[in-house]
Design a protein that fits this description.
This protein has 213 residues and is an all-alpha fold. It has one domain (42-211): Ferritin, core subunit, four-helix bundle (Ferritin), CATH 1.20.1260. It has helices at residues 8-23, 45-74, 79-105, 114-130, 133-157, 163-185, 193-210. It is globular. The termini are far apart.
Length: 213
């Protein structure tokens, strides 16, 4: 039997289905949550609310990551790059599931602004992909660098006794470093400084709103 080749319409339908699931917070992890064996902790109401705000920010970051990889895979110039972005997106889905699960445990919710964040990230990923695979990979490298720094800051901000959230964030940080290194090894181009600065500003806007909403 001949192998089936996905058409542009197939990819469009699959992308739309994935977008709806991501925005709704529906994700399945291929790995157990790092919080599985972490001890439960007694936290005050304020500490619980703070942990939830930080984990909501992290969940939004993963919504954006899914949007980026979805758009970059769809508009990649080569099948090799398309496969690379699809694989990275599947690995990042673990983070989406872990953070959503943790928010539920903290009796909180995913961001109400997820549709806006997804749309904005999808647009950025499309622009990066149109500029070519090297630029698109460079965008991944810079994104992962900023996300890793952001996650490291959360390890400082989370309540010390919240071992479950801390375990998730630490594993996410490790994974982001690996994804950035993989993109670099594939021939990523340097992202221009103005673009790096604009990405940092957008990241700050996202974190400051998602913490509350």
């Amino acid at each position: 039997m001949a192998a089936y080749h996905h058409t542009p319409l197939d990819r469009l339908i699959a992308g739309a289905d994935k977008a709806l699931r991501v925005i709704a917070g529906v994700a399945s992890a291929s790995r157990p949550t790092p919080a599985l064996h972490a001890a439960d902790a007694q936290m005050s109401e304020a500490e619980t609310r703070h942990s939830a705000g930080l984990m909501r920010v992290n969940h939004v970051g993963e919504v954006c990551a899914q949007a980026l990889y979805n758009s970059q895979s769809r508009f990649a110039k080569t099948e090799q790059m398309r496969a690379q972005f699809e694989q990275a997106g599947r690995e990042e889905e673990d983070h989406l599931a872990w953070t959503a699960q943790r928010l539920g445990e903290l009796n909180s919710h995913i961001s109400l602004l997820n549709p806006l964040f997804y749309a904005g990230a999808y647009a950025l990923g499309t622009v990066a992909a149109v500029l070519g695979d090297a630029r698109s990979l460079g965008f991944v490298v810079e994104t992962e660098r900023q996300v890793e720094a952001h996650l490291a800051s959360h390890l400082d901000k989370l309540p010390p006794q919240d071992a479950k959230s801390r375990a998730i964030v630490e594993q996410m940080r490790i994974d982001e470093i690996e994804h950035g290194a993989a993109a670099q090894a594939l021939g990523a181009a340097q992202t221009p400084a103005p673009v790096q600065a604009a990405m940092a500003v957008m990241g700050k806007l996202m974190t400051s709103t998602a913490y509350y909403i």
